[in-house]
Amino acid sequence: MAVTDTYSPDDSTAENVVIRIAHLRKQFGTRVVLNDFNVDLHKGESLVVLGRSGSGKSVLIKCIIGLLKPDGGDIFVLGKNIADMEHAEMDQLRSRIGFLFQSNALYDSMTIRENLEFPMRHHLRNLSNSEVNDMVMKTLADVGLAHTVDMMPSELSGGMQKRVALARSLILHPEIMLYDEPTTGLDPVTGREISTLITEVQKKYSTSSIIISHDMHCVKMTGDKIAVLIEGKCYALGTYEELERSTDHNVKQFFE
Amino acid sequence: MIIFMQLRVNVTEFCIDFNCMKIPSSLLGFFNEIGAASRFVSRYFQEVVQPRYEVKQFIKQCFLIGYRSLPLIGITGFIMGLVLTMQLRPTLIAYGVVSKLPVMVSLAIVREIGPVISALIFAGKISSSMGAELGSMKVTEQIDAMEVSGTNPFKYLVVTRVLAATLMLPVLSVLSDAIGLYGSYLGVNIRDHTSLSLYFFEVFNTLKFGDVLPAIIKTFFFGFAIGIIGCYKGYNSSKGTEGVGRAANSAVVISSLMVFIIDLITVQITDVLGLN
Ligand SMILES: Nc1ncnc2c1ncn2[C@@H]1O[C@H](COP(=O)(O)OP(=O)(O)O)[C@@H](O)[C@H]1O
Ligand SMILES: [Mg+2]
């Protein structure tokens, strides 16, 4: 087991690193949520961030995508520091990242088709209508929901909404996927379906991903590597098997 | 822009000064709110002129906002015209000037009742729905999702709605005036008999440029205030369904109050300009 108390970036593999988070700090008022958080995500890898509710997991991935501004430290995404980015450059980068929100964040006044078309209206403006339609139908088929294309989000079950949200975040074929608690709030069977779907999608779209979760089944299925987030730090980092054997009380409690 | 920035600085300093003097936190909160709202307004003016323009969404909002309020504003306008006429009639008869009924009613409707009643109905209908709609989009992370998909949510949601409200309320208010005057014509005809053409001949003879124009101009300000307050409340609503409810509710209360405040200001201005 590797407890990361000191951070030493391994520059020999730098070109393989798609996301590098170094000394990240974020606080709201006086409450420090992330404090000196370090982790690397390598190409093709899927990293699970494990942590209790309110430990700052969502804050972490919102910092990566630029929805929240860090108070200190650096985040390098695909080789660039996001703090230095202009608005247009950030938009460009975001088109290469898919984000699955915890609450799905489907636009409830739009049909499923319009939901999926939404990311394309900015990034792929030159496509013809039939090309757009093909992409929508193909991506929906990948999550097994091609028949819902003209429905409204409210007509779908929680699991189906999650699939549609996944399809929407995949539609621009991102290189990186960020999942915020993809199975939370779903029943165990549906949760397992979503976990399976995530692993399938990883292969098919060959994405590198960060998955936030505290559902151990999902963690085991989807994660190559697990980072345990405790008190704003990356407390432990290792594979599922390594961490499962850990004798550290703080790590053990997740696996009980 | 610069004025707003200065305002912001002043407001903060103001609060710090007051802090030392132990001024209640509610007052502090009030000034903070004013500061945040001014920043929101200044952002609106920045974004409304910068490309890219969400034309399609703007047209859709104009249609939705105008169409959704038209029946209610039409009905209230009609009733106000009718009731006003019936209630004024006995008094005018007592003073022997019942022939001046169209004059009085048309002035009241066009200058004050039409614009203000339409604005209040509009505030109740549109400001609250903006507050609730944007509030729930905020709470369910839909606004964040837009941002992540490369669409500027402020432009897409706020600018289009505020602009649509600013342009639609004057149109609705003119329609309400027309329907109100027709209601008044029917009110006259309950007891007396006039032809429609004679009635409107009298009305248009009375109304001057100085009656109509300020009344129309103030509805642009009403519309803007109603739109921006609804959007501000929704866009900044706090987490949870309770926050959404509160956003919708305070949007209606504040924008209705704002309508009267703007009305008060415009009457002072027209007075100074000698238009009253
Ligand atoms: N926008 C915000 N303003 C203030 N506090 C926030 C904000 N977002 C998150 N927090 C605080 O940060 C902490 C971590 O939140 P979050 O990352 O959502 O937790 P989780 O690990 O369950 O996803 C919480 O205590 C929350 O209160
Ligand atoms: Mg969370």
Give a quick precis of the structure.
The complex is a heterodimer of chains A (256) and B (276). Chain A has 256 residues and is an alpha/beta fold. Chain A has helices at residues 57-64, 87-94, 112-123, 129-142, 158-170, 188-205, 216-222, 240-244, 249-255; strands at 17-28, 31-42, 46-50, 72-77, 80-81, 97-100, 176-180, 208-213, 225-230, 233-238.
Word description of this protein:
The complex is a heterodimer of chains A (256) and B (276). With 256 residues, chain A is an alpha/beta fold. Helices cover 36% and strands 25% of the residues of chain A. In chain A, the strands form two sheets. Chain A has a six-stranded mixed β-sheet with strand order 6-7-8-3-9-10, sandwiched between helices. A four-stranded antiparallel β-sheet of chain A has the order 2-1-4-5, covered by helices on one side. In chain A, helix 3 runs parallel beside helix 5 (158-170). The radius of gyration of chain A is 18 Å and the shape is globular. Chain A starts with 16 loop residues before the first strand and ends with a helix. Mean pLDDT of chain A is 90; it is low at 1-8. Chain B has one domain (65-272). Chain B has nine helices and no strands. In chain B, helix 6 packs across helix 8. The longest helix of chain B has 40 residues, at 55-94. The interface between A and B is medium-sized, with 22 and 14 residues. Bound molecules: adenosine-5'-diphosphate and magnesium ion. Residues 28, 33, 51, 53-59 of chain A line the site of adenosine-5'-diphosphate.
